[in-house]
Amino acid sequence: MPFQRVEAEKLSRSVVKQIEQLILRGILRPGERLPSERELSERLGVSRPSLREAVSELQEKGLLATRAGAGIYVADVLGSAFSPALIALLSAHEEAVFDYISFRQDLEGIAAERAAIHGSDTDLKVIGVILQKMEAAHRKRNPADEAALDAEFHLAIIEASHNVVLLHMMRASFDLLRQGVFFNRQQMFKNRATRDILLEQHRAMNNAIQERDPEAAKAAIIHHLDYVKEQMATLKATRKNEEIAQLRYAQEVER
Fold it and tell me: In angstroms, rounded to a whole number, what is the distance separating the alpha carbons of residues 55 and 148?
């Protein structure tokens, strides 16, 4: 009979599986530092040799990386999501901005629906806390902090959707947004009236998710990103008019 004796799984293999799951679910994020070897072995209830064996396997898989004198970190597993050539192409063409926002609208609408249905109480609390931080940054009139928290808020909704493929796709996408590949988001937050409207839109998104109303959550996301499109179109038109005015001025000076 082709049956073999069942043996207990090695402790190191159990550790590997657990850390892989934490990375897959987005709980451990790219660039995040793991606890010290002693602390991690105590938390996992395994010996240091078993932990070292697991870490070594995860390093070979490209999921963990060692930084000299700094410890073990989650590797930048999103690094290859967009090639340098594609990044350069996207940044060189303005129409990519509107395609990007439409892409976000489609996927974040789904994420907001799922967050309202599948998000845990902890997930929803995280979303609410980030909104409170946005409100604090808004009161301090700090556009840079508010813009950073805006991205964090949207990612928290995506994390609360509990779809690992969606999560990693959108994390890669938001990484480009933070780099300013598509547009400088801080431009929108410099205008006080625009900032007020954006904050109200984020409150509407939060309220719908907290009330576990998937249709309202999706509608709030779509409405918000429609507004972002309008603002980007306005900024684009303003920039174009300024360029035309500068050109005309230069021509007048030459005369």
Answer: 32
Comparing 252 with 53, the larger pLDDT belongs to 53
Half-sphere exposure of 119 (CA within 13 A, CB side): 31
Find which of 11-25, 69-83, 108-122 is predicted with most confidence, using mean pLDDT.
108-122
pLDDT of residue 30: 82
Q: What is the mean pLDDT of the chain?
A: 84
Listed as own residue / partner, the contacts of 26-33 with beta carbons closer than 8 Å and 24 or more positions apart are 26/159, 26/164, 26/167, 26/168, 26/171, 28/74, 29/74, 29/171, 30/74, 30/75, 30/76, 30/77, 30/78, 30/171, 31/73, 31/74, 31/76, 32/73, 32/74, 33/70, 33/71, 33/72, 33/73
* C-alpha 74: how far from chain center: 16
